[in-house]
Amino acid sequence: MMTMKLYHRPDCPFCWKVRLFLQEENIKLEEVCVDLGETHPDVVALNPNGTVPVLVDGDVVLGESAVIIEYLADKFPGSSLMKGSPSQRAQIRQLHYDSDHKLGKIIFPYIKQIRESEQHKASDDLLKKTSEAWAREQKKLTRTLGEKAFFNKEFSVAECALIPRFALALAYGLTLNEDDQNLKQWFYRCVKRPSFLDTLPQALPAIDEMVKF
């Protein structure tokens, strides 16, 4: 049987969520790490966009992180991360989508500017704009979470998608809303899981503080 292969960059949130899924489900495959800015010939050949993650499973080649997770959940039907009623599964997918298309778009320009500036700082205007948008999204997530421990009955794909965004936001200086206590406890609950510690990128800023949670 041909081994599945995942091309990924450890600190990329799209890749990180796939790796969290794999760890939670104890799915073994071959991993190929790609450095930030690296043009990997295999990735370019497999994915017209030249981006990671890329999953290869025999003749199946997938270059979209959400599709990769859905494929793995279907391939391994014992998966507990996409279980529930149709409405519960739809909620998981909606949170997954929002993580990629809302949180990601809020945080990415801020992180990119920090990485690329000589001072490794974001401008005051960008920091203010990002912090305000980040705080608003936390409020929305707090309402969705309510008093639950996780967004579904148990840890799910929603957590796999959201946790890398939260971890990157905190690593680059953003904060958690003080008055959204259950959301804070949700985050601390998630980062104590073995899957988080096993997938935590070693190059992440403030990694020592992140591991202390």
Architecture per CATH nomenclature, i.e. the level-2 architecture of the largest domain:
Up-down Bundle
Structural class: alpha+beta
User: What general outline do the C-alpha atoms trace?
Assistant: globular
What does the radius of gyration come to?
17 Å
**Low-pLDDT segments:** none
**Share in β-strands:** 5-15%
The ordered string of helix (H) and strand (E) elements is: EHEHEEHHHHHHH
How many extended strands?
A: 4
Mean pLDDT: 93
Work out the helicity level: 55-70%
Instruction: From the 3D structure, determine the CATH topology of the largest domain.
Output: Glutathione S-transferase Yfyf (Class Pi), Chain A, domain 2
How many helices? The count is 9
Order of strands, main sheet, comes to 2-1-3-4
> How would you characterize the largest beta sheet?
4 strands, mixed
CATH structural class of the largest domain: Mainly Alpha
Question: What is the CA-CA span between the terminal residues?
Answer: 40 Å
Please give the domain count. Answer: 2
